[in-house]
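TASK: fixed-backbone design
INPUT:
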């Protein structure tokens, strides 16, 4: 087992921080609506309240689904379903969306560190193309008002891992203060690169904070290319040179993991993809849960892959309860093989 993972023998609690958003997931019949509103396919683009409303109006006759969302929140939600100890930092409003968010997290036994704003709770409009790719137009609302000044040592002290979504990069100070406080309290720091266009717009900042604070980096193929300028398999060692554990997700081709000189290839499970929303988030949930349990990196990758392969078969970033009932025994088998 890797020395990195064995840094502590006790199970680690995982704290997520991100944009607390409601996902409004809409199936579109073609990509013309993306072009109309200037949304690059497969990306996350920040929009204001007016444009968010226009997108919803344009797609009012399409099938839609509403869930709690936000990349780090999806990851923490998955960890809770796995039975992991976890918490989440975000900012919401005392409105219908905010109350829905709070109730969902409490029902899933997630410790909440919520701050409140008079601005409405943010929401991400996810447009799902016929090929299952998802494109987000995100109105941050209250989420954008989470500040560095609200981060305190007390929030972080009961946790062992901090997981940050790259979407928070609209606030450099918040990300850096959260990472610094985490390291001062002995936490490992994990970051998901979020979206290729976000990486491209913040490349220098991301390179610096990864080298200074980050232990674990998750990136998909496009994000790895944006971060390093290299194809996925060449990007892996370049990212691993910046941190302790690099994970590059390859979609239907699985994922690759590097820790020092060790490189692990994880196969994807067979899946009929209808919506890729949350696939990377739930992969990170399985991976971080396994690390918190002091399991081997290969086991972490296998659990992440199993979860990702199941979430792409449903609309949205949440695996249904009946699927969890089937998956949890499978995950125990994967864990037991490693012992």
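OUTPUT:
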């Amino acid at each position: 087992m890797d020395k990195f993972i064995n840094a502590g023998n006790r199970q680690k609690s995982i704290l997520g921080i991100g944009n607390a958003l409601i996902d409004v997931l809409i199936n579109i019949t073609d990509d013309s609506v993306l072009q109309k509103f200037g949304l690059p396919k497969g990306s996350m683009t920040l929009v204001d309240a007016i444009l968010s409303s226009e997108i919803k109006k344009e797609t009012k006759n399409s099938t839609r689904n509403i869930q709690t969302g936000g990349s780090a929140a999806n990851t923490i939600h998955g960890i809770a379903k796995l039975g992991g100890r976890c918490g989440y930092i975000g900012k919401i409003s005392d409105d219908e969306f905010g109350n829905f968010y709070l109730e969902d997290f409490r029902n899933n036994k997630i410790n909440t560190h919520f701050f409140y704003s008079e601005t409405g709770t943010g929401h991400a409009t996810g447009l799902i193309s016929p090929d299952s790719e998802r494109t987000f137009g995100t109105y941050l609302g209250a989420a954008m008002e989470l500040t560095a000044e609200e981060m305190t040592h007390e929030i972080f002290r009961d946790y062992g891992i901090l997981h940050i979504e790259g979407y928070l990069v609209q606030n450099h100070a918040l990300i850096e203060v959260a990472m610094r406080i985490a390291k001062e309290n002995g936490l490992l720091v994990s970051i998901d690169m979020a979206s290729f266009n976000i990486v491209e717009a913040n490349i220098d900042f991301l390179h610096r904070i990864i080298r200074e604070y980050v232990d674990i980096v998750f990136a998909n193929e496009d994000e790895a290319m944006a971060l390093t300028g290299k194809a996925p398999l060449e990007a892996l060692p370049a990212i691993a040179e910046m941190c302790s554990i690099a994970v590059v997700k390859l979609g239907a081709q699985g994922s690759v993991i590097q820790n020092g000189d060790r490189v692990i290839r994880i196969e994807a499970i067979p899946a009929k993809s209808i919506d890729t929303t949350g696939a990377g988030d739930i992969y990170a949930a399985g991976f971080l849960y396994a690390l918190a349990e002091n399991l081997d990196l290969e086991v972490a990758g296998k659990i992440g892959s199993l979860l990702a392969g199941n979430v792409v078969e449903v609309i949205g970033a949440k695996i249904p309860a009946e699927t969890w009932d089937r998956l949890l025994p499978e995950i125990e088998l994967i864990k037991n093989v490693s012992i």
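COMMENT: The first strand starts at residue 14 and ends at 17.
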